[in-house]
Amino acid sequence: MDELKDTKTIKDAVKTIIFIVLVVSFIRVFFAQAFNIPSGSMKPTLLIGDFILVNKLVYGDWSIGIPFTGIDFYRYKNRLAKPDRGDIIVFKYPENPKIDFIKRIIALPGDTVEVKNDIVYVNGKALLRKPDGYYTAPNEKVKKYIECTTRKYTGKEYCYTVMELYDGEGKDFGPVKVPEGHYFVMGDNRDNSRDSRFWGFVPDDYLIGQAFVIYFSIDLKSPAIRFNRIGKVIQ
Protein backbone atom coordinates (compact mmCIF):
# COMPACT_ATOMS: atom_id res chain seq x y z
CA MET A 1 0.00 0.00 0.00
CA ASP A 2 2.84 2.38 0.85
CA GLU A 3 4.36 1.83 -2.60
CA LEU A 4 0.99 2.56 -4.24
CA LYS A 5 0.67 5.75 -2.20
CA ASP A 6 4.18 6.84 -3.13
CA THR A 7 3.50 6.16 -6.81
CA LYS A 8 0.25 8.15 -6.67
CA THR A 9 2.01 11.03 -4.90
CA ILE A 10 4.72 11.14 -7.55
CA LYS A 11 2.14 11.06 -10.35
CA ASP A 12 0.18 13.90 -8.72
CA ALA A 13 3.37 15.94 -8.32
CA VAL A 14 4.30 15.38 -11.97
CA LYS A 15 0.79 16.38 -13.09
CA THR A 16 0.99 19.54 -10.98
CA ILE A 17 4.38 20.46 -12.41
CA ILE A 18 3.16 19.85 -15.98
CA PHE A 19 0.06 21.96 -15.31
CA ILE A 20 2.16 24.84 -13.94
CA VAL A 21 4.54 24.67 -16.92
CA LEU A 22 1.62 24.72 -19.37
CA VAL A 23 -0.10 27.66 -17.64
CA VAL A 24 3.08 29.72 -17.39
CA SER A 25 3.98 28.88 -20.99
CA PHE A 26 0.50 29.96 -22.12
CA ILE A 27 0.88 33.30 -20.32
CA ARG A 28 4.36 33.80 -21.78
CA VAL A 29 3.18 32.98 -25.28
CA PHE A 30 0.08 35.13 -25.45
CA PHE A 31 0.14 37.80 -22.77
CA ALA A 32 3.10 38.88 -20.68
CA GLN A 33 6.57 38.03 -19.53
CA ALA A 34 8.23 39.00 -16.25
CA PHE A 35 11.55 40.83 -15.94
CA ASN A 36 13.47 42.47 -13.13
CA ILE A 37 15.46 45.72 -13.26
CA PRO A 38 19.15 45.09 -12.47
CA SER A 39 20.60 48.58 -13.06
CA GLY A 40 19.81 52.25 -12.56
CA SER A 41 19.85 53.28 -16.23
CA MET A 42 16.06 53.86 -16.27
CA LYS A 43 15.83 55.87 -13.04
CA PRO A 44 13.66 57.56 -11.91
CA THR A 45 11.03 55.67 -13.94
CA LEU A 46 12.32 52.21 -12.98
CA LEU A 47 14.48 51.40 -9.98
CA ILE A 48 16.85 48.54 -9.18
CA GLY A 49 14.68 45.86 -7.58
CA ASP A 50 11.54 46.61 -9.62
CA PHE A 51 9.89 43.54 -11.11
CA ILE A 52 7.90 44.36 -14.23
CA LEU A 53 5.53 42.75 -16.68
CA VAL A 54 6.09 43.18 -20.41
CA ASN A 55 3.16 43.11 -22.81
CA LYS A 56 4.07 40.79 -25.67
CA LEU A 57 0.72 41.28 -27.41
CA VAL A 58 1.56 44.84 -28.41
CA TYR A 59 4.47 44.36 -30.79
CA GLY A 60 6.71 41.65 -29.43
CA ASP A 61 6.94 38.04 -30.53
CA TRP A 62 5.30 34.95 -29.08
CA SER A 63 7.39 32.02 -27.91
CA ILE A 64 6.75 28.50 -26.71
CA GLY A 65 9.41 26.98 -24.49
CA ILE A 66 10.52 26.10 -20.98
CA PRO A 67 9.55 28.84 -18.47
CA PHE A 68 12.33 30.74 -16.66
CA THR A 69 15.08 29.13 -18.79
CA GLY A 70 15.15 31.30 -21.92
CA ILE A 71 14.81 28.11 -23.99
CA ASP A 72 12.24 28.52 -26.78
CA PHE A 73 11.04 25.90 -29.23
CA TYR A 74 8.91 28.14 -31.43
CA ARG A 75 8.63 31.90 -32.08
CA TYR A 76 5.98 33.88 -33.90
CA LYS A 77 6.30 37.58 -34.69
CA ASN A 78 3.23 39.61 -33.68
CA ARG A 79 2.35 43.15 -34.73
CA LEU A 80 -0.88 44.44 -33.17
CA ALA A 81 0.64 47.91 -32.83
CA LYS A 82 3.67 49.83 -34.03
CA PRO A 83 6.38 50.91 -31.58
CA ASP A 84 6.18 54.66 -31.06
CA ARG A 85 8.27 57.45 -29.59
CA GLY A 86 8.22 57.35 -25.80
CA ASP A 87 7.47 53.63 -25.45
CA ILE A 88 9.56 51.72 -22.90
CA ILE A 89 10.62 48.49 -24.55
CA VAL A 90 12.39 45.29 -23.60
CA PHE A 91 14.64 43.97 -26.35
CA LYS A 92 17.60 41.73 -27.05
CA TYR A 93 20.85 43.61 -26.53
CA PRO A 94 22.33 44.07 -30.03
CA GLU A 95 25.89 43.36 -28.87
CA ASN A 96 24.80 40.15 -27.10
CA PRO A 97 21.28 38.94 -28.03
CA LYS A 98 21.30 36.51 -25.09
CA ILE A 99 20.91 39.50 -22.76
CA ASP A 100 17.65 41.47 -22.43
CA PHE A 101 17.77 45.27 -22.15
CA ILE A 102 15.15 47.89 -21.31
CA LYS A 103 15.18 51.47 -22.65
CA ARG A 104 12.86 54.14 -24.02
CA ILE A 105 12.29 54.65 -27.75
CA ILE A 106 13.44 58.15 -28.71
CA ALA A 107 13.50 57.94 -32.50
CA LEU A 108 11.86 55.73 -35.13
CA PRO A 109 13.00 54.42 -38.51
CA GLY A 110 13.72 57.39 -40.77
CA ASP A 111 14.03 59.89 -37.90
CA THR A 112 17.17 61.99 -37.46
CA VAL A 113 18.30 62.23 -33.84
CA GLU A 114 20.87 64.47 -32.18
CA VAL A 115 21.90 65.34 -28.61
CA LYS A 116 23.35 68.80 -27.86
CA ASN A 117 24.01 70.06 -24.31
CA ASP A 118 21.84 67.24 -22.94
CA ILE A 119 18.88 68.32 -25.09
CA VAL A 120 17.54 65.68 -27.49
CA TYR A 121 16.51 66.73 -30.99
CA VAL A 122 14.36 64.58 -33.25
CA ASN A 123 14.11 65.68 -36.87
CA GLY A 124 15.66 69.02 -35.91
CA LYS A 125 13.08 69.75 -33.19
CA ALA A 126 14.11 69.83 -29.53
CA LEU A 127 12.17 67.61 -27.14
CA LEU A 128 10.57 70.06 -24.73
CA ARG A 129 11.46 69.67 -21.08
CA LYS A 130 10.79 71.45 -17.81
CA PRO A 131 12.29 71.06 -14.31
CA ASP A 132 10.49 68.64 -12.00
CA GLY A 133 12.36 68.84 -8.72
CA TYR A 134 14.86 66.22 -7.63
CA TYR A 135 15.19 62.47 -7.45
CA THR A 136 16.42 61.74 -3.94
CA ALA A 137 17.84 58.56 -2.43
CA PRO A 138 20.56 57.87 0.18
CA ASN A 139 23.68 59.79 -0.96
CA GLU A 140 21.89 60.85 -4.14
CA LYS A 141 20.12 64.03 -5.23
CA VAL A 142 19.66 64.47 -8.97
CA LYS A 143 17.67 66.97 -11.03
CA LYS A 144 14.52 65.60 -12.69
CA TYR A 145 12.80 66.87 -15.80
CA ILE A 146 9.53 66.25 -17.58
CA GLU A 147 10.41 65.59 -21.21
CA CYS A 148 7.80 65.51 -23.97
CA THR A 149 7.85 63.97 -27.41
CA THR A 150 5.32 63.73 -30.24
CA ARG A 151 3.79 60.38 -31.05
CA LYS A 152 4.14 59.53 -34.72
CA TYR A 153 0.97 57.50 -35.15
CA THR A 154 -1.44 59.64 -33.09
CA GLY A 155 0.25 63.03 -33.32
CA LYS A 156 -0.32 63.49 -29.59
CA GLU A 157 2.18 64.77 -27.05
CA TYR A 158 3.60 62.14 -24.69
CA CYS A 159 5.51 63.12 -21.54
CA TYR A 160 7.72 61.17 -19.14
CA THR A 161 10.37 61.80 -16.48
CA VAL A 162 14.13 61.81 -17.02
CA MET A 163 17.03 62.87 -14.82
CA GLU A 164 20.45 64.43 -15.42
CA LEU A 165 23.58 64.07 -13.32
CA TYR A 166 25.43 66.84 -15.14
CA ASP A 167 23.39 69.87 -16.12
CA GLY A 168 24.18 70.68 -19.76
CA GLU A 169 27.53 68.88 -19.63
CA GLY A 170 26.63 65.58 -21.26
CA LYS A 171 28.44 64.32 -24.34
CA ASP A 172 26.98 65.56 -27.62
CA PHE A 173 25.86 62.96 -30.13
CA GLY A 174 24.94 62.90 -33.82
CA PRO A 175 23.12 63.85 -35.82
CA VAL A 176 22.39 60.36 -37.17
CA LYS A 177 19.52 58.97 -39.20
CA VAL A 178 17.80 55.86 -37.86
CA PRO A 179 17.89 53.09 -40.49
CA GLU A 180 14.73 51.39 -41.66
CA GLY A 181 13.72 48.51 -39.40
CA HIS A 182 15.61 49.95 -36.41
CA TYR A 183 15.00 52.13 -33.34
CA PHE A 184 17.07 54.64 -31.35
CA VAL A 185 16.70 54.15 -27.58
CA MET A 186 17.94 55.94 -24.47
CA GLY A 187 17.76 55.40 -20.73
CA ASP A 188 15.83 57.89 -18.59
CA ASN A 189 18.94 58.24 -16.41
CA ARG A 190 20.53 60.16 -19.24
CA ASP A 191 24.09 60.56 -17.93
CA ASN A 192 24.27 57.03 -16.57
CA SER A 193 22.97 54.86 -19.40
CA ARG A 194 24.71 52.86 -22.11
CA ASP A 195 22.24 53.01 -24.95
CA SER A 196 22.01 53.76 -28.68
CA ARG A 197 24.51 56.58 -28.26
CA PHE A 198 27.16 53.93 -27.52
CA TRP A 199 26.22 50.70 -29.31
CA GLY A 200 23.85 51.73 -32.09
CA PHE A 201 20.28 50.91 -33.06
CA VAL A 202 17.83 48.19 -32.00
CA PRO A 203 16.70 45.94 -34.88
CA ASP A 204 12.97 45.40 -35.16
CA ASP A 205 13.43 41.64 -34.85
CA TYR A 206 15.03 42.12 -31.41
CA LEU A 207 11.91 43.64 -29.82
CA ILE A 208 10.36 41.52 -27.07
CA GLY A 209 7.53 43.73 -25.84
CA GLN A 210 6.43 46.89 -24.05
CA ALA A 211 6.84 47.35 -20.29
CA PHE A 212 3.50 48.24 -18.70
CA VAL A 213 3.33 47.62 -14.93
CA ILE A 214 5.47 47.05 -11.82
CA TYR A 215 4.11 43.98 -10.05
CA PHE A 216 6.66 43.88 -7.22
CA SER A 217 9.50 46.05 -5.94
CA ILE A 218 12.15 45.62 -3.28
CA ASP A 219 14.92 47.90 -2.07
CA LEU A 220 17.82 45.47 -1.92
CA LYS A 221 19.96 47.78 0.21
CA SER A 222 17.53 47.92 3.16
CA PRO A 223 16.11 45.34 2.33
CA ALA A 224 12.48 46.44 2.27
CA ILE A 225 9.47 46.01 0.01
CA ARG A 226 8.46 49.21 -1.82
CA PHE A 227 4.69 48.86 -1.43
CA ASN A 228 4.09 52.28 -3.03
CA ARG A 229 5.51 51.01 -6.34
CA ILE A 230 3.53 47.77 -6.60
CA GLY A 231 0.87 48.06 -9.28
CA LYS A 232 2.34 51.27 -10.72
CA VAL A 233 1.70 51.72 -14.43
CA ILE A 234 4.92 52.36 -16.35
CA GLN A 235 4.98 55.55 -18.45
Structure description:
- With 235 residues, the protein is an alpha+beta fold.
- It has a single domain (31-229), classed as Ribbon (Umud Fragment, subunit A), CATH 2.10.109.
- It is 16% helix and 46% strand.
- The strands form four sheets. Strands 1, 2, 5, 6, 14, 15, 16 and 17 form an eight-stranded antiparallel sheet that branches. It has a four-stranded antiparallel sheet with strand order 9-8-7-13, with no helix packed on it.
- The termini are far apart.
Q: What is the structure about, briefly put?
A:
This protein has 235 residues and is of the alpha+beta class.
Features:
Umud Fragment, subunit A, 3 helices, 17 strands, single chain, 235 residues, four-stranded antiparallel sheet, globular, eight-stranded antiparallel sheet, alpha+beta
What string gives the helices and strands in order? Answer: HEEHEEEEEEEEEEEEHEEE
| Count of structural domains | 1
Write down the CATH class: Mainly Beta
How many angstroms does the end-to-end distance come to?
Answer: 59 Å
Overall pLDDT score = 84
Quick one: CATH superfamily? Umud Fragment, subunit A
Structural category is alpha+beta
The helix fraction, in percent, is: 10-25%
CATH fold type: Umud Fragment, subunit A
How would the global form be characterised? globular
Residues in β-strands, percent: over 45%
